[in-house]
Amino acid sequence: MTIANDRNGSAKLRCVLDNMKKVIIGKEEAAVLCLTALLAKGHVLLEDVPGVGKTMLIRTLARSIGGKFNRIQFTPDLLPSDITGVSVYNPKSLEFEFHKGPIFGNVILADEINRTSPKTQSSLLEAMEEGSVTVDGQTWRLQSPFFVMATQNPIEHEGTYPLPEAQLDRFILKLRMGYPDHDAEIVMLENQSQGNPLAEIETVLDAADLVLMQHEAKEVHVERSILDLIVSWAQATRNDPSIELGISPRGTLALMNAAKAYAYIAGRDYVLPDDVKYLAPHVLSHRLILAPEARYARKSADEVLKGIIHSIDIPIVRNSYHEA
């Protein structure tokens, strides 16, 4: 994917991606998708084995945008107040004072989110959906931009709590990085032998610029035929006998917003059918719950969704929408 030079802010976005490429070698697709989620005001669930660079990816993104980075290590004994904060009585003022938790930041790494209890997992729901936290009846607004990247290990299941559907639905994208190829891993070893490349990353985009870009990405045009395609996919999942729970309206909205952000990164002010087709597996698959028969047949949500996507004709969009 290339970034156009004539789009407002595209040079800064390219600098962010270049920063991420310096640290995470051979994983530009993951970098672009993370930036897509950030511009769409969404959050990312990154599921992969340990050691492939999940933490480095999010730390590089945080440093590139100059945001406040907080890491929350999820453990079985973690409490909701350890995330959101707690009110502490001050004997001098004779009042309770709210001490903010690590959720009050710009870029939050929720590391191994499936290792904590469902009660603690649910403490993130309000923050991720509404950008606020309610403690003791008082609501606190979170800083903008606000971006959560949660990680989980798909291999190790002992002592874990699978994320409920309501929690999964709050992530606009679910990604897998995978191992680097042979040449990329050699380059990574060479870079690491000279020191930590993360230490050389400089801020190239401030919070105010990023918030402006989020607003601009929201204005990207989507043809009605593409909206019809998105809804047709969603309705097909709701009627497919191999799917127990199909795509909700939140899922279709997530795909539309992700496509707008993806087009914005590409330097366009309009969405192409290829944008939604490419993003659909990343945005929709984790929202599907397969019927028992499909799981027994060892089908995956990705396979079922791919079949639905291929069964519906992609519209030909003769775009007539241009910037003035």
CATH architectural type of the largest domain: 3-Layer(aba) Sandwich
What is the ordering of alpha helices and beta strands? HHEHEHEEEHHEEEHEHHHEHHEHH
Low-pLDDT segments, ≥5 res: 1-7
- Work out the number of β strands: 11
Strand line-up across the major sheet: 2-5-8-1-9
Question: Sheet bearing the most strands, described?
Answer: 5 strands, parallel
Number of domains: 2
Instruction: Using the coordinates shown, work out and report the CATH topology of the largest domain.
Output: Rossmann fold
Overall, the morphology is globular
Using only CA atoms, what is the Rg?
Answer: 20 Å
* Percent helix: 40-55%
Classify the secondary structure makeup into a structural class: alpha/beta
In CATH, what is the class of the largest domain? Alpha Beta
The residue-averaged pLDDT reads 87
Q: Write the CATH homologous superfamily of the largest domain.
A: P-loop containing nucleotide triphosphate hydrolases
How many DSSP helices?
14
Beta-strand share of residues: 5-15%
Distance between the termini: 25 Å
What does this structure look like?
The structure is a single chain. With 324 residues, this protein is of the alpha/beta class. The chain has two domains: 1-212, 3-Layer(aba) Sandwich (Rossmann fold); 219-324, Helicase, Ruva Protein, domain 3. 44% of the residues lie in helices and 15% in strands. Strand 6 (132-135) and strand 7 (138-141) form a beta hairpin. Helix 1 (10-23) packs across helix 2 (28-39). It is globular. This is MoxR family ATPase. InterPro entries: ATPase_AAA-3, CbbQ/NirQ/NorQ/GpvN, ChlI/MoxR_AAA_lid, P-loop_NTPase. Residues 235-306 form the ChlI/MoxR AAA lid domain. Residues 43-173 form the ATPase AAA-3 domain.
